[in-house]
Amino acid sequence: MSGIEIGAVGIVGLVLCILAGMNVMVALGLVGTLGLGAIVGSNGTLGVLRSVFYDTTHSFHFSVIPMFLMMGFFAMRAGLGEDLFEAATRWLGGMRGGLAIATTGGAAAFGAASGSSIGTTTLFTKLALPQMLERGYDKRLASASIAISGTLAVMIPPSALMVVYGILTESSIGALLIAGAIPGAVFAVLLAFATWFSVRRNPKLAPLIPNTSTLGEKLWSLRLAGPLILLIIAIIGGLYLGVFTPTEAGAIGALATFIMAMIRQRGLREIQIPTVLADTVQTTAMIFGIIVSALVFSKFLAISGLAGMIGDFLTTAEVNRWVIVLLVTVLYLFLGMLMDAPPLLAITLPITHPVMLELGFDPIWFGIYVVLLCEIGAVTPPVGINCFVVQAASGGLVQLEDVFKGLLPYIAAGLVMLFVLCAFPELALFLPSTMRG
């Protein structure tokens, strides 16, 4: 059996393992190791495994992942999400659909601090959903706006998913983090517009609630949300100006959110530092397990020759390169319906990333594009993990079908954002191209 045939068998085996319910990390590592053994033998396989494990885990730069994760867990313990939602509600709650728009704004800001889509979605489901339903908002609009807003955490820096993409593709992590700032903000505006447009067409979705907050109350609401926003601006600005590295940015962010948590909770008792550290270690181990297993599988595909064959076929096809982009888009949207973002990137990037580079696309732009596809996939049925998170965190207030039924305008906004990113790639490339350091 040739290497290409073994590679094809390996892909089929991987799909079958995932469909059978096997953990994606285990499936990637098992299939990759067995495939390598079939091609290069046991000694060659052990050499590849030693190289992958060491090269992935020894680099100081990869410590950015636990730093950003710790920053997010401290932000959650500090109750900073509540402060952001209160401030956004004070300023935007008086317009029709204002609570849903405030949720988008609050989730975007908190997502920048936490970097966790699931964590942001869980928090704002508990904060915003009861308030919207009490004020007569339609269940579908309320739950869907929270589900899609939670995805902004993986686009707006700092983002753990951007770091995963950077590791898997050996791209600049600092440039990727900065590149997500403008597209993330534009996507947040598009989501807010989707809410505004929906309630304008059908006012029954969100009743108009007068905002009784005075200007003084609005300004006072920023007393606790303001420091977090300033921290986010400082991290992004420091990365952009080359003042510190991504790892240092994560460490500064973790320390700053820890201090905010102590001030907000008036002591250490409510922060539960052992729990934060345990959550950080557990999540970091999971992410690194997926990355190492994905790199083993990637080596297998490269040595088998299958990845090169598929890449040559796509890059030499006599079609416009945007046709290939369309095919890649469909692939990610389809697979995004079935699995979470980290394993999706781990499985696909060994093939799609070299193809896009060969076609002349910038790797930073493609990283932003892929992360946006993952955002859309996170709310697309039948899996749509953020939708399950909203339903589970709602305490029975909404059903899963309510969330899915309300997503159409937001998925449309996501598709518009994909087009905008293709038409104006400088949205993602301008800031990285002018970075210092």
Fold and architecture overview:
There is one protein chain. By secondary structure, this protein is mainly α. The protein has two domains: 1-58 and 293-302; 59-271 and 305-433, no CATH class. Helix content is 78%, strand content 0%. The protein is built from 22 helices and no strands. Helix 5 (98-114) packs across helix 12. The longest helix is centred in the N-terminal third of the chain and has 34 residues, at 24-57. The radius of gyration is 22 Å and the shape is globular. The relative contact order is 0.16.
- Helix segment count? 22
The helicity comes to: over 70%
* Overall average residue pLDDT: 87
The ordered string of helix (H) and strand (E) elements is: HHHHHHHHHHHHHHHHHHHHHH
Low-confidence stretches: none
Radius of gyration: 22 Å
How does the major sheet shape up? none
E-strand count: 0
Structural class determined from secondary elements: mainly alpha
Tally of structural domains: 2
Strand content: under 5%
N-C termini distance: 50 Å
Shape by Cα distribution: globular
